[in-house]
Amino acid sequence: MIQEIINFTKDILADYPELTKQKLLPDNGLYVFVDIDANGKWINENLQKGKDYDYCNKNMDEQPLLFRDCLRYQEATTYISMNKVKAFDSKQKIHSCSPFAVIFNFNFSAKDKEGLGLNTEKKPTPEIKANNERIIRTKRLEVVKSRLKDYKRNAMSIYKIKDAADNKSDLFSNADNESFKYMVQLNAFYDKLDEIFKKVEQLPEYGKLTDKDYLKVFLRSVPIDTQEELYDSYVKDNLLNGEEIGNKGVLGFLTAYSSKKPFIVHKTSSAIKGISYRFSVDDALVLFNFEKMWKRKCFPNPLPIVVDNKEINTQIIRIFNEKIEPVPYKELMKLLFEKTKQECLSNYYLLNYRNTKDGMVLDDLDFVPLFRFKFSSMLKISNVTESVDFLGNKKVEIKPDVKIENVFDFEFFVVKEIFNNSLVKIKDGNYSTNYFGEIKPEFVSGGDIMYQLIMKYRKAFYDYIYKSQENALNINMFDDIMYQSIFSNIRKDEIRTDRFSSNNSIKTKINIWFSLYSLFINNKNNCIMASKVTELLTKMKSVTFGNANLETPEEFAFGAGQLVSYLIDRSAAANKTYALLEPYLQKSKSGQLQDAIAQTIAVYKHDIAVYKGNFENLSSQVLTDGSNVDMKPLLKFFLAGCFCPCVIYESRNENKKQS
Question: Is the domain of 188 the same as that of 250?
Fold first, then answer.
């Protein structure tokens, strides 16, 4: 797979070379450029804003005058990885990896802050905050100054910069080959850093730096072309890890290994020293550039890498980078299929990754033979429960059916609704998903039931949507998901109107359950379950008016749900919740459910008078059913009966008008 990423990156950059500069932004912080002449004199000590220094922020509306310089110098001094910074500063306080720059932030660890004498009041005043930040800046600068001698020595050694005659002549030596061409300026830069820092501390922008801001001081006297050439040489020499064999070594990119952890080495491998594959420096450099672009979000997530079709790959990356804001994956796929006039995407690797504080984490990697964007036929979520829009507690109108054309519509409506806006989240117009990252239980609507449901099934939904793995979800899983999801509402939701069946969230889930039931059954000849609910409602009306009898287990379960809904409405509890339904759901046999309903009727018999005929007709049918069937496969029909409009409230005259 690493080789596929290498080939992908080479092809992309061959067709789209400007991508290496795409979305490149300066780190937040103060950038200072120092000019020292050939005599070692600091010639721009009266620092001028916009010429010699400026503050940069990724979120600034207008970039500073030095924006392009800040980017170029930043790229020529940034570290390969934080571990490799140790070679320059063993304490990792200085974060640059170039002898021509000193870069650091003011971020102390919590442990280190304990000894700084900071005011730790829980609600500090602005004055206390400002004083704390001043102390942090002062202490960090002291730490950095103590590291400068070692940093300079290490940096010059790594960059092979000589301060004396060398047998080898190179581009960066002077004509007499006595030392590095800009050695005077370089030595003066370090000699004057105390003086430089004092000047910087007087700048208004310095006093505003927070702990995560950077202070970046660059020696501008050494031409940036020279710095870039030396930096490139350093990178090539240090990309590979461990012992090199035949000019090939181990990469740090997603394949790092530690000699301190021998248990992860392939003991039985026939490869040299247990390492199955080594890469060349050129390949390592390609992956280094890929990772930098990856971190800058130049690639979609997930990232499809189509095998042997670089035109499609380039088109995907171009579409993704056309706008400043990242294009959501669902929109990316939609635009791709519109532009290419294709119906599907085939033969590609799909990478899903996260950029964490510990670096890039590869969450999932899989080969996708065929991705289907659209369903073979339009899906429809029928509003069989007659879910309505509310204005306060007042019904406005019955919601329309929902049409689902493609897998991302499925994600947007179905997955969002099933998992209570906690797996697929829409907030303030922003659309996000979390199929692999951490999910904190305390922020999941629906409590522990919903949290466990998400953790158990989120990967299956990811595979179903993003990889077109139709077997990732089956009917048993779907039934479990829908029942548990509805049960989470039953445990948590309050009844906010005078009718038990008013809960729109539960109604919507029931609509999804019945409308998509056949989607997850291998036998495509099954009946459409949504229409069955409509038929059951019609049948219940006939039963309540004394014109029909309950004949099937499904009709019994649905009728029992109608009765329970009506009985719970009779409760006089001040703060009713849907947990009133829970005792009925625990009955494993229909006979046990009948007993529970009969006991409830005895409790509320004094309040059952208004619709006496309808109630008597339905209750007599439900309570005299002698089938004593298992309730588990009938729970969906029982819940549908509970949350569909209760036919007991209907009058015969209204029914005649409608017919």
Answer: no
Name 374's Cβ contacts closer than 8 Å, sequence gap at least 6: 343, 405, 406, 407
C-alpha 194/C-alpha 183 separation (Å) is: 19
Same domain, 219 and 248: no
Output the six-digit token pair for 416: 């969002």
Q: Which residues of 469-494 are buried (b: 16+ CB within 10 A; e: fewer)?
A: eeebbeeeebbebbbbbbbbbbbbee
* Final residue in a domain of this structure, among 328, 345, 372: 372
CB contact at 8 A, 414 and 408 = no
Containing domain of residue 544, as a range?
A: 527-659
- Give every CB contact of residue 6 below 8 A, 6+ residues apart in sequence: 283, 286, 287, 290
64 and 248 Cβ atoms separated by less than 8 Å: no
Q: Kindly state whether residues 66 and 116 are assigned to the same domain.
A: yes
> Inter-axis angle of helices 529-544 and 612-623, to 10 degrees?
120
Residue 84 lies in a domain: yes
The residue among 423, 429, 494, 432 whose CA lies nearest residue 461 is: 423
- Is residue 353 included in any domain, yes or no? yes
Helix (H) or strand (E) holding 251: strand 248-251
Distance from C-alpha of 599 to C-alpha of 249, rounded to nearest angstrom: 76
CA distances from 124 to 106, 114, 129, 450 (A): 19, 16, 6, 38
Residue 109's contacts (CB-CB under 8 Å, 6 or more residues apart) are none
Over the range 78-102, which residues count as b (16 or more CB within 10 Å of their CB) and which as e?
Answer: bbbbeebbebbbeeebbbbbbbbbb
> Taking phi first (over 0 means left), then psi (-120 to 50 degrees means alpha), and beta for anything else, what does residue 40 get?
left
The verdict on 217 and 362 lying in the same domain is no
Q: Is 82 in the same domain as 194? A: yes
Domain count, the chain: 3
Do 436 and 356 meet the contact criterion of CB atoms below 8 Å apart? Answer: no
Examine residue 512 and state whether it is found in any structural domain, yes or no: no
First to last CA, the chain: 65
193 and 222, same domain (yes or no): yes
Distance of CA 240 to the CA centre of its chain: 30
Question: 535 phi and psi, to 5 degrees?
Answer: -65, -40
587 with 542, same domain: the answer is yes
Q: Which of 197, 222, 238 is the last residue of a domain?
A: 238
Residue 378 domain-assigned (yes or no) = no
408-414 long-range contacts, CB within 8 A, separation 24+: 408/329, 408/330, 408/333, 408/334, 408/373, 408/465, 410/375, 410/379, 410/465, 411/330, 411/461, 411/465, 412/330, 413/381, 414/381, 414/512, 414/516
Maximal C-alpha separation, the chain: 113
Structure tokens at 88: 């320059």
pLDDT digits (tens, 9 = 90+) for 517-558: 989 986 454 456 888 999 999 999 999 998 999 999 999 999
- In which residue ranges of the chain is pLDDT below 50? 165-171, 173-176, 256-258, 264, 266, 268-270, 272, 274, 523, 525-526, 656-659
Q: For residue range 111-131, what is the model confidence (pLDDT) as tens digits?
A: 888 888 888 888 889 898 889
Q: How far apart are CA 450 and CA 439, in angstroms?
A: 11
Q: Are residues 247 and 206 in the same domain?
A: no
pTM of the complete model: 0.83
Q: Which two tokens stand for residue 480?
A: 């479990």
Q: Considering only CA atoms, which of 555, 640, 95 is closest in space to residue 87?
A: 95
What pLDDT does 542 receive? 93
Exposure string of 309-319, with b = 16+ CB inside 10 Å and e = fewer, is ebebbbbbbeb
Closest CA relative to residue 218, chosen from 29, 57, 90: 29
